[in-house]
């Protein structure tokens, strides 16, 4: 079966709980959305016929089971539905067969977009909200109830923690077996009842509603007060700017295409058109939007670049944003100009120029890399696995450059990474954006939401600060200096273009140091790969120095580039044989396993990295760990501050700052322990250096501070801990980075029923998210996808 979930913002469920009329309207909204999705499935999905399944067969009948839920598993208000689509369908030829699962999965973006459109534009729903004094904010939440979402979710996290503990206790008492559905229902009720005195054993609907209303009132009494109706101010469909919507549709598809090398499909453009329409403020019956969506999609498709010669089926990712194509081509041209030939230092020159750099500790590849960076080639790249000793190599190159009266400036995608390099190498350091800002570059978004770079000339007024730009003052560059780009695999395509442009202008050399197999940029990847192809000297570090076990170090090299499925299965088998795979039966158990791992290492006084597949899962783990620490008496809820998204912050919490702040000295992605909370500020101490302290305002905390017991791969890139635990649903980079963070222990958590299935799951993760680094890579991938796709049957006249 395939699962399609109708999931709306949680504030809708809170509103439905508070107002019976809104509850009825919300159910009616979901009914209309369900009917729409069923029609989409029946018209857009297909079966496969013929040799290799290359003939597309239309569908005449599908079978769907609908499940309606009022609550989350944690028994908090969360109205949602599951549409379980039978994989078997009746084709137009009268035969039952499997649906084309590739089409079904890639159509899901349209289904999600339809849900967003319905929630924001349905006249009956919007009118009902207005009658109760509610409006929708830019995120689609009910603005007047959005403040209750996080506190309710925090209670949900407490329940999830109780649930995970009770499941673990039950399994331990029953020989490690998994609880049945009935036992899980009993555990759900017990988990919800913990810390709520005098609760009945069985859930009573009316009592549950009253109790949750009381909890919402305790959060803020005004939330349950009657609100005055508000007038509607809706946009009429004919007044829409279709060209602007088309541009927004392309940007939406482009931003969601980063994991596919910038490729997207007609389905992706159509979903982007629907999302763009949903955010215009228009309110009308859904049928009135069909023509608008079709026209916006058509205009958007006329402005994109097609990667294949034939007209592809709607699900094939065979298109790319024209601006992304230009960025790839432009970067290649600029790198070619930058790559002015010079030469690397000879080994004896390196020894003479860096006599005190402990060169004897460098392996052969590190020595070659240091000679290249300290040499005169315009473009150098150094790639290598985690733990390959890039810092040691850079220290030698820095000393050799200084002996030539040449400066090294280390830049990185984040100031945190740059600061680490500065401390360990000795060179001046900066985030890439700080360097570019100092040289007059500014970035923002245009009317459609696309990122746009501009540059101030000396004497021009900065529109942001109002000050006259006087030229660079912090990071002056001289000809023959060397800019080293650390963590270069995380530099996005457009930022790389601007950086290379600056290097050419200033006559300085660039050295890209990083790994394309680790975390990719938030934007489009490809900059590091393009630099490798154009470099005068491209060096691969080939020895791992981080791990005490040389066999595990060798295994991480195979994990880094597992290759095809067969090789990936061998690597997965080796990980399992070494006891580095924790198999669990379901995602709840996986979350519980990661939470338990935190406390196991925490009690030993060790630091553990928890790597999750999504930000939502990281948030859930963070909230659960915090709550267990509260329950165990480690944290005190009597003194609290508020972080991003109304996240509760307590003294003793592990947190992460998410924005650079020069006044306080904190950096994006830096991790801290909360040492104290006052009315105006929070005191922080670094998790890795007790001598490094900082103070941030409560305003900064509300906007840029979050719990950091767990994070996604981007949050742990470049970090090293005593141990690391990787959760399910990570991609290849997440698995590799996660399993190379721990000095003492690295474990992958896998959801599977058998050990063989666990190895299959791990191998799949090693294949997931493999980057397409060049335009030719994207063309090849699109052509391969097109060859696998079923096509319409040719007509015979």
UniProtKB/TrEMBL annotation:
Membrane-traversing stretches: none
Keyword ATP-binding in annotation: yes
Domain TrwC relaxase as annotated: residue spans: 3-217
Transmembrane keyword on record: no
Any single Pfam family the record assigns to this protein: AAA_30
SUPFAM superfamilies per record: Origin of replication-binding domain, RBD-like, P-loop containing nucleoside triphosphate hydrolases
GO molecular function: ATP binding; DNA helicase activity
Assigned keywords, A-Z: ATP-binding, Nucleotide-binding
Protein name, per record: Nucleoside-triphosphatase THEP1
Organism: Microbacterium immunditiarum
